[in-house]
Every structure is written in structure tokens, then in C-alpha cells.
From TrEMBL:
GO terms for biological process: cell-matrix adhesion. This is TECTA protein. InterPro entries: Epithelial_Barrier/Signaling, NIDO_dom. Residues 1-25 are annotated as: Disordered. It comes from Pomatostomus ruficeps. Residues 78-238 form the NIDO domain.
Amino acid sequence: PTGSLLYPYGPHQGDNTNPKHDDGTSEEIALSVPFTFYGKTYKTAFVNNNGVISFDYPVRQYTPDPFPLADGRPFVAPYWADMNNVLGGDIFYRQTTDSTLLADISQDITQYFPKSPFTATWALVATWDHVAYYGSSSQKGNTFQAVLTTDSKIFYIILNYWDIQWTTGAASDGDPETGLGGTPAHVDSPSIFQAGFNSGDDTNFYNIPGSQTDAIINITTTSNVNVPGRWIFRVDDFQVTGV
């Protein structure tokens, strides 16, 4: 979309497209640059239809649990909720070393973190494009993006929320016509969507404010870098930025 926070995505960018499966996931992605997340380095990742990027293992669970998770699963939840891309929407991802995109990412991160000069050398861009919720009887969709990036020393994750129209799938007690109510998303909630990070170590986790409450629908207007709808975190070591 023009004027969008979102970095370019879609088949014309060379993106892979996830299969149309409720609670589905990408194939295992062999990371061409290993990614350090909360002190551990991972070589494989999955882009899961339910709004999670996980390391080492896929996540098919659709009702979000509050962080920290007890079972040690390390992952990023831009918007963990019960999505169903069979009913609508697409999930795209690509690894990239495209110089134009990396220059844009580098400029953005340097603007928000001026004390740490950063020149991205790699990124994984995952985009959920107008994805429907489980049990939907509406045309509502959520569009958001997660970008993992590094210069091989510092590791960042950018979360871009462009259009959030629902919080809860019907299996999580959401309303089929509105996609609201029930247990909202973990950007981190028991059936409401959750947003945030789980390091896998019991102690380090972060919930974006409003996670697991109906307020998460307003995530397109909130930020930790003064850009509505954008959240950026340095994730090689656990640091909470600007909250």
C-alpha cells in the first residue's frame, strides 16, 4: 500500500507463499545468516500461519498462551492468533540481501538507534496480508509484517502493523461476524492475540502493551519508536526499548 509502513512484499518481490492450511506453517527455512535471539543462535526458522515466527520448530497452536511459555519454545509473535488463510489472505516470506531494501532497513534502524551504527547485510521479511480469522463470516483481514535483520553483530526485529481488523478467532470464543471478544491475540493473550517475544528461557519475554486485551486492536497507532504501527527491538541481548 502507498504510504505504508510495510517493506515491499509479495510474489513480485520473490516471496514464497505459505500453503493454505488452517494452523499451517512454512517449510523449514534454512537461514543463510544464523540469527541470534536472546543469546542463542539459530539456523532454522518457520513462518507460521498463526502469526508467529519460530526458531527450530513450527508452532501450530492457535490459542495464544501468556508469555513466558514454560516449554522453552523461542519465538517472535508479531500477532499470535487463530488465523485461517484458507478463508482469506496470504502469508509471504523471503530471505533477502537486496541492496535497496537493506539500505531502507539500515536507514530506519539508524534513525531509531543513532548510537549504534547499523548496516544491514541480510533480512528475513514475513508478511501476513489481509489474513482472515478462524470461523470468519466476514471480509475482515489483518495485515502486518515482521522483519528479522542483522549486520552479523547486532540483531533486530521490526514489527509493522498496517491494518488490524480483528483480534480473536471463533475457536477462541471470538465472534464469527466481528472477530472480536474472547481471548485476544498475544501480541500475548489467552485466545486474544498476543504480540511479543518468548526467549525460551523462562525469564526473558516481552509483551507489547495491550497484548491479550481488546486494546491490541489499536496496535496500528502505538509504537516504541514514535512511528505509529511500528515496533523495533534489538534481540541479540534482551533489551526493552523505549517503553
